[in-house]
Amino acid sequence: MGLKTGTVTEKFAMKEFVLTNDNGIRMRISEYGGIVREIHVPDRQGVSEDIVLGFDSIEAYEHNPAYFGALIGRFGNRIAKGKFELDGVTSELATNDGSNHLHGGLKGFDRVLWDGESISGEDFQGIVLRYRSEDGDEGYPGALDISVTYRLTNGNQWIIDYLASSDRPTILNPTQHSYFNLSGKADSSILDHQIQINASHYTPVDANLIPTGKIAPLDGTPLDFRTPESIGARIDAQHTQLERGNGYDHNFVIKRDATEELASAAEVFEPNSGRLLEVITTSPGVQFYTGNFLDGSLEGKSGVAYGPRSGFCLETQLFPDSPNQVNFPSARLNPGEKFKSTTIYRFSAR
Ligand code: GLA
């Protein structure tokens, strides 16, 4: 099987890419938003199903408030009041989440046309997506050149490499916003999926989902997933953080050894299909989000109205609002430096 490309529609004059591997995994990606529209993965019987949420037509993605499948940036997650300071200069970003900035603003990476190019190697098929975000875009300082490479390998890994540089000091925190439902049936919830998260700490949030600045232990909370547990087991437990998030919508601090670059962030297992998703990353944090804002108003693939908790996201990232939090990992990118990060989603069935 080879790489297929073609123009999607007249209005959306763009290319789409299909990546396949030797084990029957197939991904469909659009230049619009770098959106991953489909990921077909065999279950334990070898039956392939699409395990990501999205829309049937590319036009529908023009209204994609949930960011299904999209690339996110320049800054994934929230920046309080859309403001931050760099070298004594305050930047004001577009605010699109109450008074806060979320996922890059009004026209983030999820809504722009990327320039895609097919690549392949002995063990993978892939694409490189390139985009130049001009100085002042959504309020961000500096012109930013970014490339995102997606590779699908015969080892059943979807590898994402982010590479970027800027001509002025700026901030950057790109991520990928795929929603998974490993059952392949998005009309069912993800509450019986079992998740394990490799974190002993997280960054608690205030009522607007902005971090309080604390890096708090997970011990004794319903957010502690060091031991695998179903997503639904404690999601409605009485806990301020779960009330604020209306479920899980939190940044977990990934545990890694000093020498470990790529660390395991999380594993999710779906018992009926046997599908397993592993997330491995160089990023310090991962946002575990259980689709709490989905309310049935978005009509997804095959006419399914996506309800709350019909998909989950594991968005690898720096910590939310890090430009305003001195004790969080820095999002600063200086001219002459290269921003690099890698995240791997690995699929299997057992
Ligand atoms: C992220 C955020 C959520 C929500 C979704 C998009 O996961 O953490 O609060 O904004 O994106 O709906």
Short description:
Strand 2 and strand 3 form a beta hairpin. This protein has a single domain, classed as Distorted Sandwich (Beta-galactosidase, Chain A, domain 5), CATH 2.70.98.
Detailed description of the structure:
This protein starts with a strand and ends with a strand. The protein is built from one helix and 27 strands. The chain is globular. A nine-stranded antiparallel beta sheet has the order 11-12-13-14-27-23-22-17-20, with no helix packed on it. It has a five-stranded antiparallel beta sheet with strand order 1-2-3-4-5, with no helix packed on it. A five-stranded antiparallel beta sheet has the order 19-18-21-24-25. It is mainly beta and 350 residues long. The model has no long low-confidence stretch (mean pLDDT 96). It has a single domain (11-349), classed as Beta-galactosidase, Chain A, domain 5 (Distorted Sandwich). A hairpin with a 5-residue loop joins strand 22 and strand 23. The structure holds alpha-D-galactopyranose. Alpha-D-galactopyranose binds at residues 66-67, 77, 102, 209, 249, 287, 289, 293, 313, 315.
